[in-house]
Amino acid sequence: MKKVIIGSCILQNMINFSSLVTISLMKNSESIPIYKRLIEDLKKLIDDGKYVKGQLIPSENDLCKTYHTTRATVRLALTGLTNIGYIIRRQGKGSIVSDSKRGLGILSVSGVTAGIGDQKLSTIILTKPRKQAWPDTLLQELGDTEKAASCLFFTRLRYINDVPVLFEETFISDINLPRFVSRNLENRSFLKILSDEYQVEVKGGEQKIWAIAADKNLSKLLKLRLNSPIVHMKRRLKTNIKDLNIYSWLYCNTENYFLNDFF
What we know:
There is one protein chain. The chain is α+β, with helices and mostly antiparallel strands. It has 2 domains: about 1-95, Arc Repressor Mutant, subunit A; about 100-260, 3-Layer(aba) Sandwich (Chorismate lyase), CATH 3.40.1410. The chain is about 35% helix and about 30% strand. The protein has helices spanning about 1-25, 35-45, 60-65, 70-85, 110-115, 145-150, 190-200, 215-220, and strands spanning about 85-90, 95, 100-105, 120-130, 150-160, 165-175, 200-215, 230-240, 245-250, 255-260. The strands form 3 sheets. Strands 4-5-6-9-8-7 form a 6-stranded antiparallel sheet, with no helix packed on it. It has a two-stranded antiparallel ribbon with strand order 1-2. Strands 3-10 form a two-stranded parallel ribbon. The longest helix is centred in the first third of the chain and has 26 residues, at about 1-25. Mean pLDDT is about 85; it is low at about 1-10 and about 20-30.
């Protein structure tokens, strides 16, 4: 009797999973690689609590049937989920949901707001937009046009689910950005404001990442112990406007989160 009950639970689990991914499969473009669709589907199911810590997700065979794909593709997706901490793979048992941190896709040039997903994001402005001199320690040497233009500077503290996670210092060339200093950036996407109000779009970028110890100011802002390890990122985003670049210094509290992105 126990085997029958367990078998029924597994069967019902697979029926539920198949119905949950059907809509996703229909909505996704055929141009998106199957393994990426599979990663996103399973991530969402785990984030939404459909699969919880210690629970087995569908087997490789079942995923192959549901997605009409090969075992190699499914294994590539499962490896991706393992690498970002969502599952643990056990020989002879399957893939088990781990007690993972939540992933933050802030490595993307799409910006922090796009990378947070369905988590609650709020923003406090610590330094309102103002004009000032360019700092000496940017990611790369400024071009002549940038040097001649003013530097617009502001700082923000980003909260995720009411926990301070990200402190940002942003520098941007003041080129064709009238009245930017009067813009309200609180609880709004900076990149969306640039796009909607100034037709400025990010076209690419580069970034460097270090692990550093939180000093007195950062530990206070991010509510961490002094010298706690944090992720420090310096990035430059290139836009569709010549010589208008965005420079950001990010300080991330990864105590409850990890950084992730897909390429």
